[in-house]
Design goal:
The chain is mainly alpha-helical and about 210 residues long. It contains 9 helices and no strands. Helix 6 packs across helix 9. The longest helix is centred in the first third of the chain and has 29 residues. The protein is globular and about 50 Å long. The model has no long low-confidence stretch (mean pLDDT about 90).
């Protein structure tokens, strides 16, 4: 009984982590100061396809899941396949968050608060998800899989992947929209500060 209760608590905390990460993504988008690297591709595709930002994020996660399966050479890898419902939940929650998080992003005060909140809530949500150790976020899972295959340092591979996402979204924007949509101070600060905030929060919690 105690074990099942502990599992339920872990799952609930994990769900809170999903909500916080989704809130961070939406706040970053609403800031009008750019978008985080990991959301840059769905963000630019939103102007090109008749799909919502949440749905495009879900599809982007599906691509990351497929890439993991290819790298692992295990089509029936359960830990990776469990990321499929997680991707679906992320897509639904992000679209739901967008209906609630609405404000005038042209005011500098709102922009700054929104960006700061985005960095903090994204990092806090990631800490909750990491600490519960249930299912990896698909993009993070792909980065881990890629770093393992390349025998590279996880942090450096993460930076490389972020840069790749930004570069690809920039090319798509320039080719089809005539502009590099989504690039801004939020893109840079997200790259620099989210990971460091995660580390800081985990250290305060006595983790390494």
């Amino acid at each position: 009984m105690k074990k099942s209760t502990n599992t339920v608590i872990r799952f609930l905390i994990y769900l809170v982590g999903i909500l916080l990460v989704s809130l961070g993504i939406v706040l970053c988008k609403r800031s009008n100061l750019g978008i985080s690297p990991i959301s840059s591709i769905p963000f630019v595709l939103e102007d090109l396809l008749p799909l919502s930002f949440g749905t495009l994020t879900m599809l982007f996660h599906f691509v990351n899941i497929a890439l993991q399966l290819i790298l692992s050479r295990q089509v029936k890898n359960i830990r990776i396949l469990l990321q499929i419902p997680l991707a679906f939940v992320f897509g639904v929650v992000i679209d739901w968050m967008q209906t609630w998080v609405v404000f005038d992003g042209t005011f500098i005060a709102y922009q700054v608060v929104s960006l700061a909140g985005s960095i903090f809530f994204t990092a806090l949500g990631m800490v909750f998800m990491i600490h519960m150790d249930l299912i990896q976020n698909p993009p993070d899972g792909f980065v881990r899989q890629l770093s393992h295959k390349m025998n590279g340092e996880l942090g450096k591979v993460k930076i490389f992947y972020d840069c790749f996402c930004v570069a690809l979204s920039t090319v798509i924007g320039l080719l089809f929209l005539g502009k590099a949509k989504g690039l801004g101070i939020a893109t840079v600060l997200s790259m620099l500060l989210v990971g460091r905030t995660v580390t800081c929060l985990r250290e305060k919690n006595g983790e390494t």
